[in-house]
Amino acid sequence: MASDLRAAFPELAEEIRRGWQTRNGGDEPDVFFPGYWIEVKNEKRPRPIAALQQAKKAMGEAKLIPLAVVRQTGQAVVAVLYWEDCLK
């Protein structure tokens, strides 16, 4: 996902990177992208709403937009965010 974002936003490429994976998953987003807390799931049966809720909880009080990027094994990638954040 980070490489896709760097290709799409070359002017931000230096700021986009994968986060460190920790046991509790709450230290960093899965992908750093300015203004967003991105949670990535690639599973046989992903739960997009649960991933979005996880992103929102993990970011705490940070003034970022939570975003879940999910892919069901062998399927297209889907991005999910709260409607009010979409309207910003």
3D architecture notes:
By secondary structure, the protein is α+β, with helices and mostly antiparallel strands. It has a single domain, classed as Trna Endonuclease, Chain: A, domain 1, CATH 3.40.1350. It has helices at 2-8, 48-58, 83-86; strands at 17-18, 31-33, 36-43, 65-72, 77-80. A five-stranded mixed beta sheet has the order 1-2-3-4-5, sandwiched between helices. It starts with a helix and ends with a helix.
Can you tell me the residue ranges where pLDDT is under 50 for at least 5 consecutive residues? none
Helix/strand order, N-terminal first: HEEEHEEH
Query: How many domains make up the coordinates?
Result: 1
CATH topology: Trna Endonuclease, Chain: A, domain 1
The radius of gyration is 13 Å
CATH top level assignment: Alpha Beta
Name the overall outline. Answer: globular
DSSP summary, beta strand count:
5
Q: Beta-sheet strand percentage?
A: 25-35%
Strand order of the largest sheet: 1-2-3-4-5
Number of helices: 3
Spatial gap, N to C terminus: 23 Å
CATH architecture: 3-Layer(aba) Sandwich
Residue-averaged pLDDT: 92
- Residues in helix, %: 25-40%
- Look at the helices and sheets and give the structural class: alpha+beta
